[in-house]
Amino acid sequence: MSNLFMKRIYEPYGEMDGCRILIDRLWPRGISKDAAKLSFWFKDLAPSSELRKWFCHKPELFEEFSRRYLDELRTDEQKREYIRQIIEMEAEGPVTLLYGAKEKVHNHALVLMEELGRLIGMER
Known about the structure:
- This protein has one domain (4-123).
- It is globular.
- A 4-stranded parallel beta sheet has the order 1-4-2-3, with helices on one face.
- The chain starts with a strand and ends with a helix.
- The protein is of the alpha/beta class.
- It has helices at residues 33-36, 49-55, 62-75, 77-92, 108-123, and strands spanning 4-8, 19-22, 40-41, 95-99.
C-alpha cells in the first residue's frame, strides 16, 4: 500500500497528510505560507514554463501534454532527483502532493502521481 496522496492546496490541512509538498511552479493565489503548512516546495518538479503555457489546461491537449511531461520527468535531472526524494520520503510515511489547479482531471499532478506509482511499484 502506498503512502502517496494528492490534493488541492485549497483543501484543509489534515493530520494524515504527513509530508506536504507543493508541486506547482507558481505559488497558488490566496494561500498564505502559514496556511499551506508545507514541508517542501518542489517548484522545478512542475512542467516547464513552456509546456505549462502550451497546455493552458485545455482538456483536448491533455494526452499530448501528459506525454511531454512524462518525457520531462524521465529526462530532466532536477526532476529525477525530486522524484527520488519523494520515493524515499514515501517509504518512511505519508506524503501528500499539493497542486493549485481547479481542474482535477486534466492536470500535471495526475501525471506525476501515475509516474510515481509506477516507479514505487517497480521498487517493491
